[in-house]
Amino acid sequence: MAVKKSELYSSLWASCDALRGGMDASQYKDYILTLLFVKYVSDKFTGEDYADIEIPEGGSFDDMVKLIGKKNIGEGINKVIAKLAEANNLRGVIDKVSFNDPDKLGKGEEMVKKLSKLIEIFRRPELDFSKNRAEGDDLIGDAYEYLMRKFATESGKSKGQFYTPAEVSRILAKVIGISNETRPEATIYDPACGSGSLLIRALNEAPIALSGYGQEKDTTTAGLAKMNAVLHDWATATIVSGNTFSDPQFFEDGSDETVLRRFDYIVANPPFSIKNWTDGLKEYGRFDGYGERPPEKNGDYAWLMHILKSLKRTGKAAVILPHGVLFRGNAEGEIRKTLIRTGFIKGIIGLPANLFYGTGIPACIIIIDKEDADERTGIFMIDASRDFVKDGNKNRLRERDIYKIVTTFNEQITTDPHYARFVPMSEITRKNDYNLNISRYIDSGITEDLQSIEAHLKGGIPAYDVDSLDRYWAIFPQLKHKLFSILRDGFYQLNVVKDDIRSIIHDDEEFSAYADKLDNAFMQWRESVDGELRNINAYLEAKELIVRLSERILTQFEGVELIDKYDVYQVLLAYWLEVMSDDVYVVIHDGYEAGRDLSYEYVVKTRKDGDETIIEVTDKVKSWDGKLIPKTIMTNAYFSEESKAIDAAEVIIADTQAQIDEMLESAEDGSTIAELMDDKGKVPAKALKAAIDDIRSKIQSEELSVLSVLLGALPMKKKELDAYLVKHPLCLSAKNDKGNVNASSIKARIAELRATTPVPEVYAEDYERLMSLQSLMIKNDEQSKLVKALKAALEEKLKEKYTALNVEEIKELLVNKKWYYSIYDGIDALYVAISHNITDRIVELAERYEDTLPALSTLVEDYEAKVKSHLERMGFAW
């Protein structure tokens, strides 16, 4: 059965718990990622001829499993990795960390337990990569990326620089010009490749296999990059370690290492503003021809000039650099002038601040294109600095932001001058003296919300505020007339009561018709993709599917005013990444029949073993759900009546519990109920019953008296009992069904009498409250048991129905009830947001100007006069 990415990710991240405590994320990432690499290549390539990776005898994950519990486990793991490295020329790549380091992994038994636990985690069924791979799915590579992103997040500012966020990597990969016309012999290079994600993204953009090259200063990180490349099926990529400035590793063939190699494409996210870039520098002509050298204490332009030197005469590059390179002066300013004159810069994309793990400063992407540089007449600029979402303490680009940037740049779209412009070279050179600061060329379009003094003095709402909503009035012209009328020149008055604004907008016919327009666009999209989604098979490329789905939804919503088509795109892509892609990969691998499969969560127990906490997964089921189709969807489709019965019982429980809570909260200190409460503010049922019985024990009557005496005298002979009954006829009321009087029947009669006989007046009020509370608690308990029984019965029915589903039913539930419903729900939220936006703005304007300054002044004067009058009556004068 195919594993979902979400399940794989959670298992991998859980494995990190085994190493936390002894080291930080910047260190334990090396252990986790190395084990992931060994496990993956062992599962994928063991026994295969002509595989990318050879699995030698004694060099597989199975050999690590044999070491579990052994005293020499750390040393043994190192030997296994060494054999794998030796067989694949990966010495110094995958064997950089030692699994026999007591300072990081503990000594003796501690190390044995820690490493044994780690290997056991990687033995889990969901980490069997020989079975969990759909064709075309970067499941393992993506898992590797997921871990590196998590590690970067935990490592903090100084240690997270090895990782370029995937969202940014995708932009660079898509704007450097790789296309279907790219030659098979083309090369891609990253001179500061870190963990390799950016280089791999660029390689993946090509429709054919290209040659990838990367250099990374840190040897351990270079090892991560090589492993990352293998896990993404780029085992042929050349990853080397060394300082790019003092020890470049790539040279032209036959140049005796005197001429730097030139590449067709370059992507890079080099460390910002490094101060020691000249240490041991070897120039290779990298800085010739620019009039100045990069400043010694800032390497930003040194990276850019190295990239230019390493590009072929028709080469293309995309590099991330801090915004300072766009406007800083002195030597950098002179280099920038020369660079602009060459025409090499094709575009500049301004990114939001706080995207990267190593720094919070804003950065930009500079796109270089040497081809036809002498004919270039300007630079295409994009200001994407405002498009992001908060993600913890970082900012993150959404799918909509990525798509908008890429399509805007690649198609040179200039319909929104506040977002993108083609800036003529004359404007850059003559008007702005070669300053490339994006804010000089692109106005954000954000206007200040000005207050009108006249409106505050005379009343009314300024016309420019009302007319600024013209994008709404163009769609809802009658709505504007319902809400506003002209008060005087330049000012409107509100025609309705402020509190009615929301209902008037919501009930407006034009506004309702707009909702129908959204519905129609969604329905047309659904019709255009329905055939594909109901006929997924093993030959489908999931990544191509989502491209088609997203392009069609953009087309359908292109002409829908007010709704930003990129927001609709975000709805679809967010759902794809969170849920739908997992579902599609499962269907590709296992077919629609996987809709019958169930997924179980088991109870986890923890126990202490010395100072170590042992986590054990039991075989007891904690919860379950459908692997593809959630129980909620199944319930709504087939068992709505059962669900309603459960809901009704739960309503009773909630109402009863509310009454109980009110009784407890209102109980006065010293009252009987208050004295029965435990530390949690609850009244235990046993304590409540005991209190009621205590009051009932104080009930007195002649019949109770004689019955109690008789009960105390038992056992007695039959003649004696008969004589007592003759003498005390009231006791005959205690006869049972057979006409006999015995201890049991007497106790039953006493209980009956105490339940029906009024309690003494002094206890009556307490007794009534206690009985009411008990009645509510019994009712709550009965309904809770009913709900439990109903849910258990429903669970059994659901399980039976899952197994009985046919393929057509599964398609209907999965595609229509799950996928379409969720996507539509997200789009509908955009419509609701439109209603809120226009309503909130009108209410804001109404409240801002509803009281004029003279009216407020008069009100203040009235209050002052009243206060003064009160003070004078109190004898105060001034």
Automatic annotation (TrEMBL):
The lineage of its organism: Bacteria, Bacillati, Bacillota, Clostridia, Eubacteriales. Its EC number is 2.1.1.72. PROSITE patterns: N6_MTASE (PS00092). Residues 137-444 form the DNA methylase adenine-specific domain. GO terms for biological process: DNA restriction-modification system; methylation. The keyword Transferase applies. Belongs to the N(4)/N(6)-methyltransferase family. Transmembrane segments: none annotated. It catalyses: a 2'-deoxyadenosine in DNA + S-adenosyl-L-methionine = an N(6)-methyl-2'-deoxyadenosine in DNA + S-adenosyl-L-homocysteine + H(+). This is site-specific DNA-methyltransferase (adenine-specific). Residues 10-122 form the N6 adenine-specific DNA methyltransferase N-terminal domain.
